[in-house]
Design goal:
This protein has one domain (about 5-85, about 120-145): 3-Layer(aba) Sandwich (Rossmann fold), CATH 3.40.50. Helices cover about 50% and strands about 10% of the residues. It contains seven helices and five strands. It has helices at about 5, 15-25, 30-40, 50-65, 70-80, 90-105, 110-120, and strands at about 10-15, 45-50, 85, 125, 140. The chain has a five-stranded parallel beta sheet. The chain is globular.
């Protein structure tokens, strides 16, 4: 399925950490597809959200490498973005994440991301982690399974 078609009925999307990494680090295979989604968000054609988990996960590599520029790039991109809010982890999110972990054997960070997306009313979760597809409570869009041609038909 083409990315454009996959997003056709999506009004609100959750963005996984890997998508932010692909965009900021200009991944040769995925950056353009993520940029397309971000453009839809910027144009108010698509609502989006993520969680504070995204900030925590994206900062690990630049902190390990002492790459202040990359750290700043992630912070600048993620902080204070009205159109991509980073939702906090509340007790309700934590409990839903526990339920998802128990049901699907997810990693904690993934369960928190998915729980945030579900509780935020998202129609879909954009990732490149095929293992998350086993979650049935939200539509999971995996970049590797989408044709990344974004030209309209």
């Amino acid at each position: 399925m083409r990315l454009v078609e996959a997003l056709k009925d999506v009004k609100r999307i959750a963005i996984d950490t890997v998508c932010v990494i692909y965009f900021i680090e200009n991944h040769p295979e995925y950056a353009n597809a993520v940029e397309y989604v971000l453009r839809l968000i910027e144009q108010d054609k698509l609502e989006a959200q993520s969680s504070v988990i995204t900030l925590a996960e994206t900062l690990v590599k630049p902190l390990k490498l002492k790459d202040v520029k990359l750290e700043d790039d992630y912070r600048d991109f993620l902080q204070d973005r009205e159109n991509l809010p980073l939702n906090p982890i509340s007790e309700i999110v934590a409990e839903r994440a526990a339920i998802l972990r128990a049901k699907y054997n997810l990693k904690l960070a993934d369960a928190l991301q998915i729980a945030t997306a579900i509780l935020s009313g998202c129609d879909a979760f954009l990732t490149n982690d095929v293992g998350i597809k086993r979650v049935t409570e939200i539509r999971v869009l995996v970049l590797d399974e989408l044709e990344l041609d974004t030209t309209p038909q």
